[in-house]
Amino acid sequence: MTSPHLASPHLDGPAPTSPSAPEPTPTGSALRTYTRTAERASAEVISCYSTSFGAATRLLGARHRQHVRNVYALVRVADEIVDGVCQQAGLDTAAQEDVLERFIAETHRGLDTGYSSNLVVHAFAHTARAAGFGRDLVDPFFASMRSDLHHDDAAGLDEQAHDSYVHGSAEVVGLMCLAVFVREEHLDPATRSRLEHGAARLGAAFQDVNFLRDLADDTDRLGRSYLGPAHRLTDADRDRIVSRIRDQLADAEAVIGLLPIDSRSAVRSAAGLFAALADRLSRTPVEDLYRRRVRVPDLRKAAIIAEAVGRTWRERR
């Protein structure tokens, strides 16, 4: 898996860690302390791995921030298990599979009981139970993580396999975040369906952008090909993928106004930043993508975020 779709375009420098409790933690003083500690651990994962996502969460309302950090942390730890950390520690494929399966089993126990001795899993379970999602979203994610340990670069992923992988690696993560945002809302079925479609499409767009941005690392370090059966993409392949990304982003942007007001600035900013990345990817020869990672300049990022915050502020009036 390339970088989790939750990660917004990379900013430089460490993100400050300032977790805020999203809502009252479970009853019992010992459990409250443990849960706060678990959430601090999840915030530290973001601080170390994604400066951009740490910055993006600060645009969320206080009631959402830590929950989304908790989701990110679990996704990141699972990603690291399959993306080389275990291998660098000297574990063979069978041992890597065992680590992943034990992590999955611990996550299931956390979802069932609301407790885990693994701090990241405990924080995630707290969020999942508060937001009302469970194995329906978690298991497709782990299915994609399992597939990373058996990725056949010679074959790559055909369209069906790509769509299945992206559903687990990205779309369901978008749906987890949506569940956090709307957990206190009373939505009619039509509105919920539109929001779920938009969240899944946004997650897919994030993943496809990162697939293009990470061609060099995925190909050279991980030996994986996520964007088609061909070993090397062509400029025509890039154009087809960027067109798909733009359609996905358009579907997501169409429903942002249906989100709770205190989640819109962050989602709009992320969508705008990935749209800017898609534009830059469309202008970059594909052979360059195999050598360097495309980024959006910091000044342009700031302008996109300011525009998103301003639009959301006007909607409050």
UniProtKB/TrEMBL annotation:
Family matches, as InterPro entries: Isoprenoid_synthase_dom_sf, Squ/phyt_synthse
Biased composition (Pro residues): 16-25
Region (Disordered): 1-30
Signal peptide stretch: none
GO terms assigned for molecular function: transferase activity, transferring alkyl or aryl (other than methyl) groups
Top-level taxon: Bacteria
Protein name per the record: Squalene synthase HpnD
Naturally occurring in which organism (per UniProt): Acidipropionibacterium jensenii
